[in-house]
Fold:
Amino acid sequence: MSFADAFQKYIKSPEKFPSIIKYHDDNVIIIRDLFPKSVCHYLVIPRSNEITHIHPLDAFYKDYSNITGQELYDLMETYVTKAKDLIIEDLKGMFNKCELNNLKLQEFKNSFIKVGVHSIPSLRNLHIHVITSDFESPSMKHKKHYNSFNTDFFVGFDKLNPMLNKRYQTIVSRSGPAGGEEDYASDSTNSEDDNIYDDYGDDQIEYVSHIRNEGMLMNIIKQSPLKCQSCGKSFGNKFQELKKHLHEEYLTKYGQFDNFDHDNIVQYYEDRPR
Amino acid sequence: MSFADAFQKYIKSPEKFPSIIKYHDDNVIIIRDLFPKSVCHYLVIPRSNEITHIHPLDAFYKDYSNITGQELYDLMETYVTKAKDLIIEDLKGMFNKCELNNLKLQEFKNSFIKVGVHSIPSLRNLHIHVITSDFESPSMKHKKHYNSFNTDFFVGFDKLNPMLNKRYQTIVSRSGPAGGEEDYASDSTNSEDDNIYDDYGDDQIEYVSHIRNEGMLMNIIKQSPLKCQSCGKSFGNKFQELKKHLHEEYLTKYGQFDNFDHDNIVQYYEDRPR
DNA sequence: TATTCCGATAGTGAC
DNA sequence: GTCACTATCGGAATGAG
Structure:
């Protein structure tokens, strides 16, 4: 068992690690990332042996003995929501008397939490990241950390919905490899799933363009200039300057909450389970 | 006054720095390098304002108001000998009762001390390095330190003898730029300085080939693989491995002396004036 | 090529 | 692509009154 199988013992015997595992049932465990790259950083990890070693870009596109890919996706979506709720609870804990902030917390939950997977996971057990977008953390230590969440190396959970891939298959099977946008536009008129397809307009053409070439992906996280996803400012290769900037962004973002206290966040890191 | 003029105050007022300056008279000061790159590392620094800012590769090739280049070279040679004697005194001090080692010390003096200049000095005042060949020192910290003494970037004092350049000039003036080895061989028969030229045979043809191109010189110290000048072993860019090897070579070399004690050498560094 | 400080870059080993 | 550790490599500032 190498480092890459670090989650194996958790999904096998969650009851043995009560301090680490925030939630578990027969389907998943939810844990805090041991090296969180943001103030809040959770992982949703399916427990099934049949599923755990499937590549994250394939996991929801195939069917299993007891569950279809679509059903697995929908199921995981419920656990992602649970992880988001854990984040909200964390925030309430950090800011103490936050009853007045519930509206802001909802907005926060809906727009400031990223959910998705790494195109090349280092840890082999399938896991879904649920992470706040501050990237303010002592464990955020170099360019690859940041770019693995802020480039195409990171694939949003919504882009993994097999419904999108199913449509892609439909297009391909009808038009063949040479099919272009015209084929794509034409099939919205005769599919039985029009209502669903209409939810994703032509500007969603990229939905199945997940990069799988490992060299290309490594290049993306190694070579892409560091860019703040909030304000768009680029920092080239100057990671420490990005860190300073992210800290400013973080103070602004979390400062919207009453009782915001940076020391509470620092304490959060010091108290976190190792 | 920038860092590059660090020696200026010493040559102006040597009497103000008695703890740093090991020897001084009207012509030169001799100091220990403040960041010695070997167990023993002295600098011979001419005091004359007329001379001090001449490039080391030119300094002995031109005449001054009160001294010719050749006279300056011969004069500096006497101070180089004095610096070597200071090194011998250092070694005696390190090993304490070394009366029995005088023969070995003479051999050491004649074959283990390098004398010369850097092709691109960082400190502007003309200075001649007189340094033991161990390169065992806490101040030996990176590749450029080592290569600045162990590649063509370092020009031996013997190669700066203007006698050699004078002969080169003779060749060039007689044969023109296209002149080759035939011209070189022919002029030994009709020069009034035959006796001198005969001291440097045809295998000394490289005597004036000092590289002056700055880019080329920078490349030499930056790119040349690290190579032990004692045993010839190459260490590529692995400076720390070279350091370990040099330490072994040093233990062997200095172990030839009675009463060798490595801790004495370490103490030597800790006690050295800063 | 002076030093020192900081930081970016690169390779390793981990059980 | 995990971490932590070591080391290599790269730029920038450096003083004095």
Notes: The two ends of chain A are 20 Å apart (CA to CA). Chains A and B do not touch (no CB pair under 8 Å). The first strand of chain A starts at residue 21 and ends at 24. Strands of chain A lie at 21-24, 28-32, 41-46, 113-118, 128-132, 154-156.
